[in-house]
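Interim report, section 4.2 (structural modelling).
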Amino acid sequence: MIEIQNVTKRFGGVTAVDDVSLTIAENEFFALLGPSGCGKTTLLRMLAGFEEPDSGVLSLDGSDLIGVKPYKRPLNMMFQSYALFPHMSVLDNVAYGLKMEGVKKAEARSRAAEALEQVQLGHTASRRPAQLSGGQRQRVALARALVKRPRVLLLDEPLSALDRQIRGEMQIELKRLQHQVGITFVVVTHDQEEALTMADRIAVLRDGHVEQVGAPDELYERPATRFVAGFLGDANLFPAGTQGEEIVVRPERLRLALAADASSLVGLADTRSGRIAEVAYLGTARKYVIDLKGGGTAQARVASVDDTRPLTAGDEVVVGWAPADGVVVDAGGAPVPAVAETVHA
Amino acid sequence: MRGRVGGKVLGVGFAATLAFLYLPILVLVVLSFNASGLPTSWGGFTTGWYSELLNNDGLTKAFLNTLIVAFWATLISVVLGTLLAFGLEKAVKSTGLDAVSYIPMIIPDIVLAIALLSFYNLVFTQWLGLSLGLWSVILGHATFGIAFVAIIVRTRLRHFDDSMVEASLDLGANELRTFRHVTLPAITPGIVAGALVAFTLSLDEFVIAFFTAGTSVTFPIQVYSMVRFGVTPEINAAATLVVGVSLVLTVLALRLRGRSETTL
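Predicted structure of the assembly:
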């Protein structure tokens, strides 16, 4: 549905988007995920028409988007700041896009009222945006974009301005809304948890290029690069092979036993020995940090239900992983720490 | 106890300041209703000087001229001042240009008046063979009016979120409609406040008008020429009217400006 082919965009000497190619399918909830400066917002703004690519192809349903003014594209955007018009009532904000399309005033107002009902804000129609809470403003911005029935809804960091608690609810709410209206959502976010929760597929971007595209579980379980492994959750990286390849093992998949009990670990691809440095009790699991012999650390996460005999700091242990649990990644790109912490906003 | 004494001292000081500022104006207003026509004796209440004022062709003509000047000078100031505000706020961010744009506001009137007179004489009179008149006063007043409008509109623009323009484009409005429906309403209080300031300043501006009016006469010039033969009760009446108009316009401008800074 959306075709992005070899798109490049430079600002001055900086290449914000570097030869990116992506295909986004009809009705997909697609996330562009990456740290700030990775080019995800520039990509979104190119889809909306606020920036034009220097080279490459952008098309929607087979028709070229390049050179088409923002107000002629069947995509609508929800802005990070919401960008509600302060001098208009909530209802007029939502009706604005319809009026600009040439929809009759009465019809525009009734459709806008309907859209407000859809986000449970019918009662705020006559208020000004300044009189609403952050969460309400966000839903008005959503209604304002959706009332146009666009082919695609673009969302720029939609939840970043909200409190942590509301954010969780809105993740579910956005997902529900996307199913209900049945249109393609493209969301830009730097929050890996947000992307994992909401998206059908995620493109992880870094320094203007795509590192990997895939479903959330695919990216988490089978990361293609050490950057993806480190950006989505915690990862252990063990050197392997001669070309500088590494093996990624998720902490919950790392097997752990006392050195004396090493024989209890069977069917492993490889093992390392070390000593427990730290133990953190997380409720549902225990997190162990292990100093490996020969340098480096590893992290293991053992679910509390399986942790019948908790280990303590100083215990000599053996860690290992089953062949299916180790993912080989190439060494491309800048190094990440041997144990990459979860990236939080 | 001390607090109350302090309060009294403050109160007296405040009253003295008010008297210092407004007593002369109050005397002027009272004298404009004085039937005797003399500043030294009260001859009873009359509105006669106001009707005389209306019959004074020189004064009414001059007042009409002043309204014409103020109207056109304000119009030019609003259009160019708003453009200047956009340019300085959105296009070129340069403190040097910023400073230059304030010069017409802070430069002494007499200096600006001499500069404008020399310039107009050279360009309009010498080269183009035109003679100075109301139109050159209009240009002169627009010179400082632009700066005042620009500074007031800028405060408004500074608080304007550019993503609102993008949101409007995204929702299907072209550039022109976006300006009309989103940008303009957001800065309108600033534009109106700026217009009121420009209008008020033009109404009673004397120095520049005196220098650049050629043979035309504006209200302050007419008053000045009448005062040379002594202050007449008519002039008191005329001055009272100007005070009234200026006061109303200033209060309006302050209120709009206040609102433009608090909302958004």
